[in-house]
Amino acid sequence: MNKRIVLEDGFSLVGQAIGSEEDSPIFEAVFNTSMTGYQEILSDPSYYGQGIIFTNPLIGNVGINRDDFEALDPSLFAVILSSLCPTPSNFRCKMTLGDFLKQKKVPGIANVDTRALVLHLRDKGTLRGKIVDVSSSIDDVAAEIQETPWLHDHSAKVMTKKAYEIPATGKRIVLLDFGAKLNIVHTLVDRNCAVIVVPGSSSLSDVLSYSPDGILVSNGPGDPQDNKGGIETIRGLIEKDIPMFGICLGHQLIALSKGAKTYKMKFGHRGANQPVIDLKTGKVSITSQNHGYAVDADSLEGTGLLPTHLNLNDRTIEGLRDERHPVFSVQYHPEAAAGPHDSFFLIDQFLAMIDEKEGYIHA
Question: Which of 193, 248, 269, 325 is flagged as catalytic?
């Protein structure tokens, strides 16, 4: 069955339907440059409202397994591929990617020139799109997309609806869930932390009722400025001097809570190959990232926040620390496995910060 992907400016490509054969919702078209990890990408709640274009030419070669999900169900709106592998080969494989997309009713399109599509987005910037029947009028679909308001409050769609706890005997960590990946929980549980996962919209009093030793502010989708309640709660927690670590969207929310600003990037960072330099040590890490917004460096003056990391591709802010409170954040994903030299040490640094809470001084 042939399908067509149409962008709001009229750019269009024809391909073959995969997954659900229904027309897709209108999505924000984004591209991911990772060569591995497509199962984690597909199940990452941060992709709510988006259609993922995979730049790697072959996707699905190891199928879908039972272990590598970041959420129980995918939140993305569509998948766009160059080539879908129909015969995966891996000892953990339980089903093909095509069968998974059908089971989860995710619409998609394959056999399209993803390189042309990505080059168009790099040139024009972020655009919205829709996957439709090949017979649909390109002009009519483009007009429909243009006339449809942008989605807001993405995090509210994917965060947990009620608090739950994973008990342990170690430190009590409240995870403010704005669309948290499961691997964030896993890294804390592996360190014997008791993890209390609460909605990102929780009030200050609700969070304090769990007597947290530390706060982890999670990743998540959408415009960080939509999370007014979460920003207010984070501001209150910082003033309580509770050790805090922010990841991705959490990094942006901490910045907003301190009076800094964020902005929408031209096409964002999505992939497992983003070089980031630690401004203190000079060490460069290859990081996994997934974000379309960034902290405005010019807005940091007077906030008490200092940059700790920069992206070497475009010099955007990749890390912050608070001069007066035990708070730090990174824009990338320390719980992800971008390569042999991953950033798990940042989780350990957060836990060490809790140990040193009394008389805490930033290095």
Answer: 248
